[in-house]
Amino acid sequence: MTEQVLSITANDGVVLARQLVRTLAQECRLSLVEQTKLVTAASELARNTLIYGGGGTMTAALVSDRGRRGVRVIFLDHGPGIEDVDLALTDGWTSGKGMGLGLSGSKRLVDDFLLDSTPGQGTTVTITKWAR
């Protein structure tokens, strides 16, 4: 399957991101619980891309590795970046008005989580959920 790219520049982009991730999770045959976890993480990260990154893109695809299948989703923005990634991944820490569970909560909901951020240049978050 080829990658699908969505623009996240308004709330409707967040909705479309959730829908696309759910469709891919179903195609991958993730369990309903695993689908829900992945869609929740993607929704949080799409919202972060919009609110904190000023908008960006989401790239999603079915992937395989050593006989296992999964869904990989990459969020990219060119916003202000994150000064302290470790602090940003701490439960309860927030740079805005949220509860501080977006990044850390998303990390707990997926199997693979990679956050790369450069202050002044933007942030890339890559998540993968593997079928059991």
Oligomer class:
single chain
Look up the CATH topology.
Answer: Heat Shock Protein 90
Instruction: Name the strands of the widest sheet in spatial order.
Output: 1-2-3-5-4
Mean pLDDT rating: 91
How is the main sheet built?
5 strands, antiparallel
Strand content: 25-35%
What's the CATH H-level homologous superfamily? Histidine kinase-like ATPase, C-terminal domain
The percentage helix is 25-40%
Please give the domain count. 1
Structural class: alpha+beta
Distance between the termini: 20 Å
CATH architecture identity: 2-Layer Sandwich
Radius of gyration: 14 Å
Number of helices: 4
The SSE order reads: EHHEEHHEE
Number of strands: 5
Low-confidence stretches: none
Shape: globular
| CATH class group | Alpha Beta
Q: Can you offer a commentary on this structure?
A:
The chain has a 5-stranded antiparallel beta sheet, covered by helices on one side. The protein is globular and about 40 Å long. It has one domain: Heat Shock Protein 90. The protein has 132 residues and is an alpha+beta fold. The protein is 37% helix and 31% strand.
Compact overview of the structure:
This protein is α+β, with helices and mostly antiparallel strands and 132 residues long. 37% of the residues lie in helices and 31% in strands.
Label this structure with key terms.
132 residues, alpha+beta, Heat Shock Protein 90, 4 helices, globular
